[in-house]
Amino acid sequence: MRRYQASSSPLLYKSLSIFIAFFIGYAVYSRQETTSASLALSKGFELLEKGEELEKAKSHFETAAEEPLIAHWAHLGQGRLALRENRLEAAETNFNLVEANSAASLDAKLGLLQLDMRKGPQESAETGSAAIGPVGAKLNQLEQELRQARRRDLLPKLALLKASLAERSKNYPYARSLLREIRLLYPRSAESKMARLAESKILREQNISLTLAEILQEASTLLREGQLDDALGHVQNAKTQIGPDTPAALEAMSLEEKIVRKSGRNEEADRLLAIISADGEVGSGDKALLQMSKNAWNAEEPERALSFLGNFEKRFRSSDLLWEARYIRARILDEEGQASEAKSVYQSIDSKSAPVLQREKALRRIAWGYMRTSDYEHAAKTFASIATLTKDKGVSPEPELTAEEPRSKSTSSARKVDMELREAHFHARYWHAFALSKLSPEERSELSGAQTPEAILSAVQEEDPFGYYGMLARETAGDAVPPGASESSADCFLATPEEMHKRIAILRGHNLQSFAKHEVNWWTPRENSSSVDIKKELTRAKLFQEAELSALSIGSLRLLFRKLYVQWQTTPDNSLLETCAAELNQLRYPLPFREEFIAASKEENAPLEFTLAIARTESHFDPKAQSNKDAIGLMQLLRSTAKQEGLLETEELFEPKVNIRLGSKHLARLLKRFNGNTHYVSAAYNGGSSAVERWLKRYPDLSSAEWTELIGYPETKNYVKKVRLAKAGYAAMKASTHPSEPGEKP
Questions:
Q1: Average model confidence (pLDDT) for the chain?
Q2: Which pTM value belongs to this model?
Q3: Catalytic residue among 143, 618, 645, 709, which?
Q4: Does residue 285 register a pLDDT over 80?
């Protein structure tokens, strides 16, 4: 097995040259002005979506159809317009004009099926299976094609057609199951609303009464859809049918608590939790009491939280949540300065009957307890135990889902555990090497046998070359440069037709980037294979960047890294990583809005690489990003923060130049407050300055890397690591000269 060699400066410049070279082929197109045809196409779809000035929309589509490279999208627009106006023959004609080998052909097929549904005969559908008959067969075939082309946007539309076909066939149970699936997988979509109305219509017309379980299930679904009033109404309806002090009553009350808390009625939610915790058994009472403990802890009421946890230990010793409750208790004791008591509780969690992840968390805290007191011998032993515990964990195969496709709750939870265990393994090995390095050679020999700190760090570099701990291992070894390509680097990209680059150049402006995304996913080979096709995924990521879709590019690479890691663990061969390492790194650290970032960095005195790392971590450079907490734009600024930094009434936070300037100014303010330490500033940007002050007081005199491991909020800890890794990547890639446009020289 080959190892990554330390990269030299010439290799770094070679990597930069590779990045420039693979963009040369389409440089001229990316510089072109978007055409009048693309503007017409954008306006046509905008008017069609709004249902306004449809004659103008028709004219715009006719103009767009004159450009051969995007004519298929124009014909699609004409077909949808005709379908909207119930001109069925014209709709069919235009849908058939869409080329069969174009990205728009999937949309056209769906349009033709919608026409078939309007004018075709009724078909039958079997319970629990797809609809049968000509239309049903076409729907099933199209569903497979949509999944291959990563067209998540069309899947709920197709499911609505399948549900409609089942309803016409009087197969109401199957129709309802399809409608409910839409609501569960796409809860905030327009199709979810349509599915909700369609399901209500079936219930009403067929005079179907929901069972008690179905009423509660509907309330839960409405909560996911954000229909809080309706959700609460269903819960209250259920409560009228349930006897007091029954498991069903507690289930309804638990759901009610979630709804009223989501509505902002926290005091009422707390009262409900108290009732559930007092009356409930394992399955309801334990969940409520643990949540009360967390709420008290988050409210900085440690004594109250410990009281709840003591009660939990007495009442719910058979609960699966016992290990988590003990861990929280130990964390609180630790934060309150009761290290010995905390250690005792952590040790009680290190049991074979406890989940692996819970054991790892407890052992990690024990190890860091030793580290804080400079007991490196016991720290090394404990980190070694963690490495053994987590070895070969977190390598379950990636489900056949794309980065854009919804995951079930169980799948997402399993994947999250996998990723945490993988991180835990490299964490343990890196800090094991660190602790060993603090001991004498004789002490190390007794603890680790043939292992040396250098050997462990070398292995971490090799096995986690693009991860946080691989980066720390490189820096510890004196090489901060990410792995680069070998001297005989092979071509890592599929040959891309010139027409593709021209089409992307046309579509990347005027709000047509979703079409550019579909073009990339349509063209990139879609066949599945037993091994990761790195060339295919790199090409997809490169084309996404060309289309100014950095968020999709970075997301595709993240999924690729996950698959590569699993493949490497099952088949130890990192040649794929090694061959295209430079290309991977260049794609990982794009620089959209280059001039805006450089100007803001100079004006606000915020380090360029750090600002880029924050933007990449916050939004993946999506200027339209908006979180559920109303953080906006590239730097994910709250309006209150933006106003503090000088947002004018005439300025818009979704505008990249404005967002970058204000975000850089905020970073500069935090850098001044925390003496230029980017670890502290990253933590403050995510978790708040007061939390950072608290952690600094609790853990003084630690290196930045050590301090990061003891951050109290898991989300903030992971955030700081991501920013630190991205900052190192941008620094190595020399961000100030990193080309922002294809073909631009550094």
A1: 86
A2: 0.86
A3: 618
A4: yes
